[in-house]
C-alpha cells in the first residue's frame, strides 16, 4: 500500500472515523452490504473496533470506506455480511499479516500497539510486585486483573483472557503470593496469547531479565 504523508493520513482518519460514528449499528449489520476487509473486528455495537483490529486492516477499511463514499453505489464497507460479530481468530488473522505496517505516531493504537503497551504495563507490574505480597497486596492485584479482563479495550482479547483465567481446573488463576510466582504467571498468560496468534513462545525463565533486571549481557545497563 502506498504511504500517506502523516498530515494527510491523520485527516483521512479523522474524516473516516466520523463516518464510522455516523453509521448506526443496525445498518452496519445489513447482510446485503459489501464484506469488511479481512481482519476487521466489529465492536459489540456492530461498529468497527479500532483497538481490536490491526492497522493494516484498519487502513484497508478506511480505503474501502472512502471509495464507497465517493462511489454512487449505496454499499458500505462498514456493513458486513460475513463478519458481523467476530471471534478471536479474526484479530489473529490480522496480526499474522506479513506486511503489517506500524501505527503512525500520535494516532490511536491498533490491536498490536495497544497489546505491546499493555504487556509492558502488565509485566512491569509483575516486576515491581513485592517479593512476598501481603493479603491486601494480593487482593488489590486480584481486583486489578478482574477489572482489567473486563475493561481491556480490545473486547475479543479481553474475553479470551478472562476465559483463560477462569479455566475450570483453576490452573490459570493468578498466582499472587509473590513476585516470582506472579511474574511467571504473567509470562504464561502472555504465552497463551502468543500461541493463539501463532507467535514464538517466550522462555519464562528469562522473564525477570526481560522485565526487571535487564539482560545479563549488560545491554540494558
Ligand atoms: C491480555 C491481552 C490479550 C491479547 N489478545 C489478543 C488477541 O486475542 N488477538 C490479537 O491480535 N492480539 C492480542 N493481544 C495483543 C498481542 O498479544 C500483542 O501485544 C500484539 O500482537 C503485538 O505483538 P508483538 O509481537 O509486538 O509483541 P508482544 O506480544 O506485544 O510482546 C511485547 C514484548 O514482550 C516480550 N514477551 C513476549 N512474550 C512474552 C512472555 N510470554 N512473557 C514475557 N515477555 C514476553 C517480548 O520481548 C516482546 O517483544 C493481546 C494483548 C493483551 C495484553
Automatic annotation (TrEMBL):
Coiled coil located at which positions? Answer: none
Enzymatic class: oxidoreductase
Which region ranges are annotated with the description Disordered? Answer: 1-48, 63-112
* Gene Ontology molecular function terms on file: flavin adenine dinucleotide binding; flavin-dependent sulfhydryl oxidase activity
Signal sequence region: none
> EC annotation?
1.8.3.2
**Descriptive protein name:** Sulfhydryl oxidase
The species this protein was found in: Penicillium malachiteum
